[in-house]
Design goal:
heterodimer; A: 325 residues; mainly alpha; two-stranded antiparallel ribbon; two-stranded antiparallel sheet; 3% strand; globular; B: 419 residues; alpha/beta; D-Maltodextrin-Binding Protein, domain 2; 2 domains; ten-stranded mixed beta sheet; 17 helices
């Protein structure tokens, strides 16, 4: 740990005179090095974002041309009963999905990371195995789980039967009451490896001297975890939380689309912002795609993510105490 | 000298002819969602066309059905769409025409070979412009395992009560799941259940037209009754049918584990390959013996030309061929279950397809109730029908609630229904 007293404060007179010149020369380099990333980011991320915001302010006519509509599309989405019910239902389902990930996926990731960090050598096989599903295609994961849970060909009922719990079996993916939770848990199964890896890396970066010092001071394993390790990895947990928040609006679509279709079956119980956006933008059977309404939903997703991330940055991130190690 | 002259002239003539042939040569690509038909197009249909028109080279380049609409729109907007576009019926294609992406082909001679109801699926509302040649319709009904019926001593049911009698008998025996249908994918509930048995109650076209002009509502008894019948179905569907999807139902039937499959005729091709038993088919049962039967004979697939095609003349030539009797016969027999809408007379070879197409003579034909105009607004009636039909199966809605949802959705934007 560095001592703040040895750091020189800004504007100390002992600074060499040539420093300013050198900084200006370095500026050109910085621009050159940033340019490729900035260019790619602008073309593939910022420009489409602005274009999609622009699209949401227009309304399409039958002949394919567009007219200025101002905020009409937003008003329709939020206040027209047909759109508003769909929108708020999808938003609510996204929140449920986020909640399930926060209470199941992230604590599980923390637990696995903590266990792995206790026995790095023994755990490496498990570490790989738990991480592998995150690399699989969502379509494959969806298909596998659909088969496992299928009432006709699935093994879940047989497996439950071997421990005498066959009566517990339900067609979970097909019931309104359980479909969203089931899909969330499939997603947790697939992605638990990511928080685990992030937290595991943070845990490994804690120097042994700190742990040794805590032990010398008389703390047991449990207290060391709560009082030393957890405060040190809090910034990582914060990042995990914000990644979960963003991911639940963007990543959730793939899995739900592949398992439950773009109408979020059964009876819209798994309809999220992503599926609503997809069927509005691209159309669904007889529903003709509406790029402008679709762009409006996409923009709302952007604003929701923006607000969430801003709140997090303003209220949480700044208060997190960072320790140099 | 003259010989040299002659040779030169001949060579020149050949060159000119060659250049002319080259100039005429055109390549056409067909956009389609029927990826399973690739082999039939490549091996039978395209060679048959190219035999008559060697100067035109045709490629069949399908996209998967769920991606088709999105991918096609993107390609047409980006100017990379194929020359020939396989048309979904009604509004999807109408929108493409209104945006100037499909050509008006009203003056195509071959269109005279089709009845008006067939062309209506690909015309403007006033019928003034036609933009796709009708290719085929699909017919709904029930396909059954004939060996299972024989084993249990059952006969094709004629009335609704006969139908439930048959289901009871199969249930009692216990060897087979009586009905192979689930509600997980939702669309089967609307397509193979509601619009399959519904026309019997709303008298086909009569009921559909009444909805269109506002003289009937979804909450009227003739539109609620099919939901009530469907509610009785779920006692006979597979256990945990709520998580049974479309392919699950197909497999359940073709593996011989279910006795009756509420079907669309498009299944015939696949079932012929997968199922190892004799199959039969019966039309939707009627309420009382001797009543007129109604079938859903849905205009499902057409083909039009991209307005931005590089080879419009070649594309027209191809469309004329699609409208010909030769194509009608080839297509219907190569793809049993897709029935040409052409007036041309020809023999259907597949026994199951023959049975289903014969219903056109015995029964009154109609199309799916939500497809023309009624699914133009938001909320979309057809999407709603998927939802409420599977809700009825799942006991999440009563038949009355299902009908009310449909009616409320339609009333919210469709003027003729508003007073």
């Amino acid at each position: 740990m560095s001592d703040p007293k040895t750091d020189k404060p800004e504007g100390v007179p002992t600074r060499p005179a040539g420093r300013r010149k050198r900084r200006r020369a370095a500026g050109a380099h910085i621009f050159v090095f940033l340019a490729p990333a900035l260019l790619i980011y602008t073309v593939f991320s910022i420009y489409p974002l602005i274009e999609s915001l622009r699209l949401s302010l227009f309304d399409g006519l039958e002949d394919g041309t567009a007219v200025w509509a101002g905020l009409d599309n937003y008003a329709t989405l939020l206040f027209d009963p047909n759109w508003a019910t769909q929108f708020w239902r999808a938003f609510w389902n996204n929140l449920v999905l986020f909640f399930i990930h926060m209470v199941v996926q992230n604590p599980l990731g923390l637990l696995l990371a903590a266990l792995l960090s206790l026995a790095p050598r023994f755990g490496s096989a498990y570490r790989t195995l738990i991480f592998v599903p995150t690399l699989l295609s969502v379509v494959i994961v969806g298909f596998i789980w659909e088969l496992i849970l299928s009432p006709l060909w699935g093994v879940s009922e047989t497996l439950l039967g071997t421990i005498g719990l066959a009566w517990l079996y339900q067609p979970w993916l097909g019931l309104e009451s359980s479909a969203l939770a089931t899909v969330s848990l499939i997603s947790v199964w697939q992605y638990v490896g990511i928080p685990m890896m992030l937290i595991y890396a943070a845990l490994l970066s804690i120097p042994d001297e700190l742990i040794d010092a805590a032990r010398v001071d008389g703390l047991g394993g449990w207290s060391i975890f709560w009082k030393v390790k957890l405060p040190l990895i809090l910034p990582t947990l914060g990042i995990v939380a914000i990644l979960t928040y963003i991911g639940n609006f963007t990543v959730s679509f793939d899995l739900i689309y592949s398992i439950q279709g773009s109408l979020g079956a059964p009876n819209f119980s798994t309809d999220v912002m992503g599926t609503l956006l997809f069927r509005t933008f691209f159309g669904q059977q007889l529903q003709v795609g509406d790029t402008h309404m679709g762009a409006t939903i996409a923009s709302m997703m952007f604003f929701i993510i923006l607000v969430g991330v801003t709140i997090y940055l303003a209220l949480v991130q700044r208060r997190l105490q960072r320790y140099e190690m | 000298m003259t010989r040299i002259m002659k040779t030169t002239t001949a060579t020149l003539a050949l060159c000119v002819a060659g250049a002319a042939a080259l100039a005429q040569e055109a390549t056409l690509t067909i956009e389609s969602w029927r990826s399973e038909d690739q082999a039939i197009w490549d091996d039978v249909l395209i060679p048959a066309f190219e035999a008559q028109h060697p100067e035109i080279d045709v490629q069949f380049t399908p996209t998967s059905p769920t991606e088709y609409n999105a991918a096609l729109n993107a390609r047409l907007d980006g100017g990379t769409g194929g020359d020939l576009i396989t048309c979904r019926p009604f509004d999807g294609s109408l929108a493409l025409y209104q945006r100037g992406q499909l050509s008006d082909i009203s003056d195509l001679d071959g269109l005279d070979n089709f009845p008006d109801f067939a062309k209506a699926a690909w015309q403007t509302d006033d019928g003034s412009a036609t933009f796709c040649v009708p290719m085929a319709s699909v017919i709904h009904g029930f396909i059954y395992n004939a060996e299972a019926f024989e084993e249990l001593g059952l006969e094709e049911p004629e009335t609704v009560e006969d139908f439930f009698g048959v289901l009871d008998a199969i249930q009692e025996d216990g060897t087979y799941t009586p009905l192979a249908i689930g509600s997980a994918d939702q669309w089967e509930a609307a397509t193979m259940a509601y619009t399959n048995i519904g026309p019997t109650y709303w008298n086909g076209e009569e009921g559909r037209q009444a909805l269109l002009d506002g003289s009937a509502e979804f909450t009227d008894p003739q539109f609620v009754k099919p939901f009530e019948v469907m509610q009785r179905w779920n006692n006979y569907m597979g256990r945990a049918y709520q998580a049974q999807g479309y392919t699950d139902s197909q497999n359940l039937f073709t593996l011989g584990r279910a006795a009756i499959y509420p079907a669309g005729s498009w299944e015939i091709g696949g079932f012929n390959q997968q199922a190892f038993f004799e199959m039969g088919a019966f039309p939707p049962p009627v309420e009382a013996a001797g009543d007129t039967c109604y079938i859903s004979d849905h205009t499902d697939i057409g083909i039009g030309m991209n307005a931005a095609s590089d080879a419009p003349e070649a594309a027209r030539t191809f469309l004329e061929w699609v409208a010909s009797a030769e194509f009608a016969e080839l297509y219907t027999n190569q793809l049993p279950g897709f029935f040409s809408l052409s007036n041309a007379q020809f023999d259907v070879e597949d026994p199951l397809a023959q049975e289903m197409i014969s219903w056109r003579q015995e029964c009154e034909s109609t199309i799916r109730v939500a497809h023309q105009i009624l699914s133009r607004g938001e909320p979309n009636t057809w999407n709603n029908m998927w939802g409420v039909s599977s809700n009825v199966f799942n006991e999440a809605s009563t038949p009355q609630e299902a009908a009310q949802t449909l009616q409320a959705g339609l009333e919210s934007w469709y003027e003729p229904q508003q007073d």
